[in-house]
UniProtKB/TrEMBL annotation:
This is Peptidoglycan hydrolase. PROSITE patterns: LYSM. One of its GO terms (molecular function) is amidase activity. One of its GO terms (biological process) is killing of cells of another organism. Keywords: Antimicrobial, Bacteriolytic enzyme, Hydrolase. Residues 259-303 form the LysM domain. It comes from Candidatus Bacteroides avicola. It holds the Pfam family LysM.
């Protein structure tokens, strides 16, 4: 069985896709708790997804810890262009650039909304659905909000790592909300999509409470029977929180530099095959043992 117990060992061996660039931390959570109501208020007023506003605020202000945010209440890195209010100067793309300064954070949020709503180059974004945070993130980068080439991906990662998309549903019209609820009955995973990771050249997800092979298959457009086969499980297996589930066939051997593995307490041939993304039958074959073999603590197993 694939237990959450093995995840700590697994992550020592693996790298995550998208790097989990923004791991959950208390500072981010505190910022979200404090400013989510303000972001929702702005969304209802200007039709900008609250998830986008929060993600930009987190990214641009370092969760409220940047000098610009602390001293000037500027949470969105908006520069002075056309600004008649108080100004401050910081090094950014160029030395000593002019940035807008605000009396309070609420003014920064309001100005950010107006900046997007009244900016001609952002007009196309307001044609998107309020729940299309990916479209908004990519559109902001396309419109030139930031020079960082990975800006859209960074926003999307923050939104998904911190479940910020849940705030966007508060901005739906009654008609949109009804449609959304009907869609969720058919595709429940849309309310909280799984984060995907990469290890051993393979994409995987970590199972959550209530997950089934059928639900995961629907979310990733993969036959649930294939998921069972890819992970060397049986169709009656009940997924447990923390299970590692690969979305494609595992490899015939571990990637370099993992040549061998010393069995630890609680290991099984299956859990080891999951840790290193190796097909179970190949792990048995490499070690010249049959399916009745039960590894003991201290045994050395070949991985390649």
């Amino acid at each position: 069985m694939i237990r959450a117990f093995f995840l700590s060992v697994f992550f020592l061996c693996c790298l995550s896709v998208e790097g989990q660039a923004q791991r959950r931390n208390a500072t981010y959570n505190k910022y979200i708790k404090e400013y989510a109501p303000l972001a929702v208020e702005q969304m209802n007023k200007y039709r900008i997804p609250a998830s986008i506003t929060l993600a930009q605020g987190l990214l641009e202000s370092g969760a409220g810890r940047s000098v610009l945010a602390r001293k000037s209440n500027n949470h969105f890195g908006i520069k002075c262009h056309g600004w008649k209010g108080r100004k401050v100067y910081h090094d950014d793309d160029a030395k000593g650039e002019c940035f807008r300064a605000y009396r309070k954070v609420e003014d920064s949020y309001e100005d950010h909304s107006k900046f997007l709503k009244n900016g001609p180059r952002y007009a196309f974004l307001f044609k998107l659905k309020i729940t299309d945070y990916k479209g908004w993130a990519k559109g902001l980068k396309k419109a030139g909000y930031a020079t960082d080439r990975s800006y859209a991906n960074r926003l999307i990662t923050i939104i998904e790592d911190y479940d910020l998309y849940k705030y966007d549903h508060k901005g739906m019209s009654k008609r949109e909300a009804r449609r959304w609820q009907k869609l969720l009955k058919k595709k429940p995973w849309l309310a909280n999509p799984h984060q995907t990771y990469l290890a051993n050249g393979l994409v995987y997800v970590v199972a959550r409470d209530g997950d089934t092979f059928r639900l995961l298959g629907g979310e990733f457009d993969i036959s649930w029977k294939k998921l069972v086969k890819y992970n060397d499980l049986h169709k009656e297996y009940t997924l447990e929180t923390g299970d590692i589930i690969y979305l494609k066939k595992k490899n015939k051997k571990a990637q370099k530099p993992y040549e061998e593995y010393i069995v630890r307490d609680g290991d099984s041939m299956h859990s080891i095959s999951q840790k290193f993304g190796i097909r179970l039958k190949n792990l048995y074959k490499m070690n010249k043992c049959d399916e009745d073999y039960v590894p003991e603590v201290g045994d050395r197993l070949r991985l390649r």
